[in-house]
Amino acid sequence: MRLIEEYARGGTGLAVDEVWALEAHLEKCRDCRDRLSAAVTADAPAVAALTEAVWSDLEHRLASAVPAPARRLRARLSAWTTPAMTPWLAMVLAVALLALLLDLAGPGSGQVSLVLLLAPVLPVCGVAASWSRGLDPAYELTAATPRAGLQLVLRRTVSALAVVIPALLAGGWATGVTAVQWLLPCLAFTSLTLALGGVIGVSRAAVALVAAWAAVVVAPTLATSRTAAALQTEGLPVWGLLLALGVGVVIARRGAYTVLGAHR
C-alpha cells in the first residue's frame, strides 16, 4: 500500500526498480489498480480532476465510435515482432536463397558452401532489426513499458530465429550441409550479439560481430577455398563455450535491456 500511495503522489521517493515492479504488477492486478485510483483521488486531487476532465471530453466520442474488429493474431504477434522486422527478415531469407542458388549452381562439391559461411550470422541481422532504435519508430514507448527488457529481447530474438533457422535447415539439406556445422555457431553468435548489445547496443554489436566474421572467416575461406577451422566439427566445443558465455552474460546483465542505450 505504501508503494501505491507514493506512486500516486508522483513516485519521486521510489527507486527505479520499485517503479518498474509496481507498474508490471498493476497491469495484472485489478485490486491494486482500484487502490491506486483511490489513492490518486485522495492524495492527488489535481491529477484526479484532470483525468475526469479528459474522460468527460472523450466519453461521448468513444460512445459514438464504431469498435474495430478484434485482431487477436495481430495483437499476439505484436508482443513478439515489430513491423520493422518484416523487410529485414525478408532480406535475410533472400540472402539465404541467393546463397543456396549459388551453391547449387557451383562448379563442384569442392567449392566452399556459401550457406555454411552465411548461416551463423544471418539470424543476427534479424535480431538487430528487431531491437534497433533506427528501425523501430516506437522504441521509446517500448523501452518505457514495464514488460520491456530481457523478456522482450528474447521474444523478438526467438521470432527472428523461428523464421531464419527453418530456411537455413532447408538450404543445408539441399546442399548437403549438416546443421551440426552451423547451428551451434549460429546460436553462439546470437547470444554474443545480445551479450555485447547490453554494453554497446544490439545493432552495433551485430554490425561488429558480422564484420569480424567476414574478416576472420569468410574472406580467408573464399581466398583459399577451404572450410575454416571455425566451421569444422572440431570447433564445436569452442562454440558451445561461447554460447554458454553469451547466455551467462545476458542473464547477469538483464537489467541493461531496459534502457534506451540497448536500442543503439
Automatic annotation (TrEMBL):
Transmembrane feature ranges: 80-102, 114-132, 153-173, 179-199, 206-224, 236-256
Keyword Membrane applies: yes
Entry protein name: Membrane protein
UniProt keywords, alphabetically: Membrane, Transmembrane, Transmembrane helix
